[in-house]
Amino acid sequence: MGFSSSRWPLIRRAFVFLVLFAHACHGFYLPGSYMHTYSKGDAIFAKVNSLTSIETELPFSYYSLPYCKPSGGIKKSAENLGELLMGDQIDNSPYRFRMNMNETVYLCTTSRLNENEVKLLKQRTRDLYQVNMILDNLPAMRYAQQNGVNIQWTGFPVGYTPPNSNDDYIINHLRFRVLIHEYEGSGVEIIGTGEEGMGVISEADKSKASGFEIVGFEVYPCSVKYDPEAMLKLHMYDSISAVSCPGDLDKSQIIREQERVSFTYEVEFVKSDIRWPSRWDAYLRMEGARVHWFSILNSLMVITFLAGIVFVIFLRTVRRDLTKYEELDKEAQAQMNEELSGWKLVVGDVFREPECSKLLCVMVGDGVQITGMAVVTIIFAAFGFMSPASRGMLLTGMIILYLFLGIAAGYVAVRMWRTIKGTSEGWRSVSWSVACFFPGIAFVILTILNFILWANNSTGAIPISLYFVLLVLWFCISVPLTLLGGFFGTRAEEIQYPVRTNQIPREIPARKYPSWILVLGAGTLPFGTLFIELFFILSSIWLGRFYYVFGFLLIVLLLLVIVCAEVSVVLTYMHLCVEDWRWWWKAFFASGSVALYVFLYSINYLVFDLQSLSGPVSAVLYLGYSLLMAVAIMLSTGTIGFLTSFYFVHYLFSSVKID
């Protein structure tokens, strides 16, 4: 009953080999990016991402404004599927830094601003658009004070409008502060995956790897009025005297027609003790950890309360009733059935085929696919495999997981279909419906939103080429895998009902209040475990903040699964107790109704927390994406509740002896 003694030497040798191998590697894994080391004077060029705003949620290209362009022309960086879907458009820029060399540099002077350029600059300024710059895969960080509190933002504004003024001023001088750590090649082997691909620094490259590594990138923007005639005599990257940011508006660069805008920047390199693996800590610094723990404790209280109800009902009431029922002979059971009320009376109807059974199977299959995608993605992210340094990887990973989990969706849906119908006939139609139901809803919503983005010339619009890529992934990977899963479902062992179904359905007693009120009310309990974390997620999506507390999110997800299961089981038992045998859809929506509260909370967040969001276009985009999220949550939580209730009902009535 254990390991034989002959196996222990083999295990010990394997363990010793593993330890020696780990010691010989002298390495560690750094998710997200490949470490670059630079020698003094090496040229490093910053990149620019799309302009973004928390007021409109419409991203635009950096070069849609009259900014300085690189001398070699604009070149787009390679982008993954997630970046394209998120509206990222990363281009090269003329901002050049020379490692560990402080300098103040002239960039360019624009031609005289015309009416359209002035109108666009003013609009982007008043809509609070931010310029997002990237250096060595680090976003530019800006520190500011608001109501006496130090806050940090990524990016810097296009311009600013002084209080009680109709004039707008452009940000045309940037002071960069680059934190560097002096790295001496010490035999550390580094393997990383990032936008530049995979790279290894081995022992042979030790001397080459010595140098400086970038561990921080800060920007301090200001507006400075220059003499355009003097500036036009300069060339790009010419050194100029130090620039001090003026406090007087008369010395700032106003946005108006016929003005020439000169762009300059200065860079200061500061040595830092921050190590390269810790350089993202400043961006991912978690605020409000106590709030997250409060959310978890609140969820645990709800779970404990529901678990108490479940144990009282099932370990005492149900067990006692079953014991009494089984001790009687057949005549006494028949007499007892006439006297008893409750779930025991619906034994001949509890497994009667529900209305719209095909739709139920399809929604359960899609729910399994979405739940599996969410669980696996959050587990990988919680263990650090989804680094924010790899932009778009989280969304790309979710899409790939969703595609390949089509096999699980098809299997569950077809097996449930066989169980309800008693035959495999029609399984192909069920599999096709599973493959097209949720993706079809997502496709329609995203297409409508995409037309809105196209009409506004936003970089958030999905290119036509990407549409074809998504359709190919859908019909060439997801659909075949779902059909394969459905085929496996036809070959799986059929779930046998423990009791026979009567030919004539039993009449359901009239109730004082409609059952859907109880079903909708049940959704408040799962929502109570979710809403605090939902606030942080919405803030991350719509306010441009980093969300990287996936450990908390994993705990909340596990608690949500438990609450959904408990709520659905309790509600199913309550319906059976009042002789209502139509429990199938009610079990699904008892936990799935949490999606309604999520959508209502999203509207509340729009009204009270996104007050800066301006215009009907922005509101339609927000509500469209929120609706898509709510549908996914409904399918996922509804599936969890339904499957738990199904196995509970199966177990409950398998204990009843009946002819």
From TrEMBL:
Transmembrane helix keyword on record: yes
Membrane topology type: Multi-pass membrane protein
Localization per Swiss-Prot or TrEMBL: Endosome membrane; Golgi apparatus membrane
Domain of life: Eukaryota
Keywords: Endosome, Golgi apparatus, Membrane, Signal, Transmembrane, Transmembrane helix
Keyword Transmembrane helix: yes
One of the protein's GO biological processes: protein localization to membrane
Signal peptide (residue range): 1-27
GO cellular component, one term: Golgi membrane
Membrane-spanning segments: 293-315, 359-386, 392-414, 434-454, 466-488, 516-542, 548-571, 583-603, 623-649
Family: Belongs to the nonaspanin (TM9SF) (TC 9.A.2) family.
Protein name: Transmembrane 9 superfamily member
Biological source species: Morus notabilis
